[in-house]
């Protein structure tokens, strides 16, 4: 079974906050991917609520992130800690969802 984690983050308003977020996410991605949590897509809203980001991660199961953080937390470098702290300083809110694939039947080829 394939699981996905969808993280929606609302950043503080203003263009100046986006660089801190992207730098922090660079480190988060590097750390997560070292534990097999793969970033499928990272987006920012173009029309709609400004500075809203969506990150879709492929995970093994609902506990994958917790296990990865238990391994990673003691190993954060000073640079990683500072970048992630700066990223969190510009995040106003975050919602995380764990999703699983739905097996849909193939479209019928007969008229």
List the main descriptive attributes of the protein structure presented here.
4 strands, 111 residues
Would you mind describing this structure in some detail?
A hairpin with a 7-residue loop joins strand 2 and strand 3. The model has no long low-confidence stretch (mean pLDDT 90). The chain is flat, with a radius of gyration of 16 Å. The chain has 111 residues and is of the alpha+beta class. A four-stranded antiparallel beta sheet has the order 2-3-1-4. Helix 1 crosses helix 3. 14% of the residues are buried. It comes from Kineosporia succinea.
Order of helices and strands: EHEEHHE
The profile of the biggest β sheet is: 4 strands, antiparallel
Estimate the global geometry from the Cα principal axes: flat
Compute the gyration radius: what is it?
A: 16 Å
Helix content: 25-40%
Total DSSP E strands = 4
Beta fraction of the residues? 25-35%
Separate helix tally: 3
Give the termini separation.
32 Å
Structural class, by secondary structure, is alpha+beta
Overall pLDDT score: 90
Low-confidence stretches: none
Please state how the strands of the largest beta sheet are arranged side by side.
2-3-1-4
Give the helix/strand layout.
Elements: E1 3-11, H1 17-34, E2 38-44, E3 52-59, H2 64-72, H3 78-90, E4 91-100
Antiparallel strand pairs: 1-3, 1-4, 2-3
Helix pairs in contact: 1-3
Protein name: NIPSNAP protein
Organism: Kineosporia succinea
């Amino acid at each position: 079974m394939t699981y996905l984690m969808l993280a929606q983050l609302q950043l503080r308003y203003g263009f100046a906050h986006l660089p801190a977020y992207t730098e922090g996410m660079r480190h988060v991605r590097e750390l997560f991917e070292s534990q097999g949590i793969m970033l499928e897509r990272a987006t920012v809203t173009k029309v709609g609520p400004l500075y809203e980001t969506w990150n879709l991660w492929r995970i093994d199961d609902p506990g994958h992130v917790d296990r990865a953080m238990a391994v990673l937390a003691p190993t954060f470098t000073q640079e990683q800690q500072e970048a992630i702290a700066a990223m969190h300083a510009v995040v106003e809110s975050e919602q995380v969802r764990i999703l699983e694939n739905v097996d849909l039947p193939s479209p019928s080829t007969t008229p």
